[in-house]
Amino acid sequence: GAGKIIAADIIDNKLEMAKTFGATHTINTATDNDPVKKVKEIGGGLGVDYSFDAVSNDKTQALAFDALAPGGHAVAVGISAPTVRASYSPFMMVFAEKTVSGTFYGSVLPDLDFPVLVDHYMNKRLNIDGLISRTYRPDDINDGFKSMMAGEPARRRELFVVLCGWLLQRRRGFGTDEFMQRRRSCVEHRLRRRQREQEAHDV
């Protein structure tokens, strides 16, 4: 496991909640003048081995990359608008051998991974209940969005979260047939790769 887990956000109550899920250190990037320097101080001077950007805009992507130690790996988790472009230092990517990659919904394979996650939840090894601070009825969807955009909750998982996520993706151009076909091809490729790895392991 990780020796240090650093959570960064612009809202203090989200940082407090992060501590209940294992964060050992927190940084408010809205008030800290140099969050990258702070991350490196906490990490021992060089930076972190892994960073995960749950927002994935131009500023947070740069922060996730700059906070990496040599040989580190930054993962883009959040889904940005298609027009967003991030800036990295190609020199540092090569010289420090840093890696940047993305993950779509955790790169899960639902048929294989969801049963495992359900087992973890049922066995109290995965705290999903702690992520729910309030639920909304479909009729109250606008109130949920207003609350979310205002940054009021630390994290709220609405009853209509799947529907909202799908609608949001369609608005951003991620619900097109072309995109979904590429997505299915990606999942099928990873499934075949996992099967080959398992077969090689069995041999």
Characteristics of this structure?
alpha/beta, 5 strands, three-stranded parallel β-sheet, two-stranded parallel ribbon, 8 helices, 203 residues, globular
- Overall geometric form: globular
Overall strand count = 5
Helix residue percentage: 40-55%
CA distance, first residue to last residue: 28 Å
- Could you describe the largest sheet, including whether it forms a barrel? 3 strands, parallel
Helix tally? 8
* Sheet with the most strands: spatial strand order: 3-4-5
Class computed from helices, strands and strand pairing: alpha/beta
Low-confidence stretches: 156-175
Rg from Cα: 19 Å
Q: What is the percentage of strand-forming residues?
A: 5-15%
Roughly what is the average pLDDT, rounded to an integer? Answer: 79
SSE pattern, N- to C-terminal = EHEHEHEHEHHHH
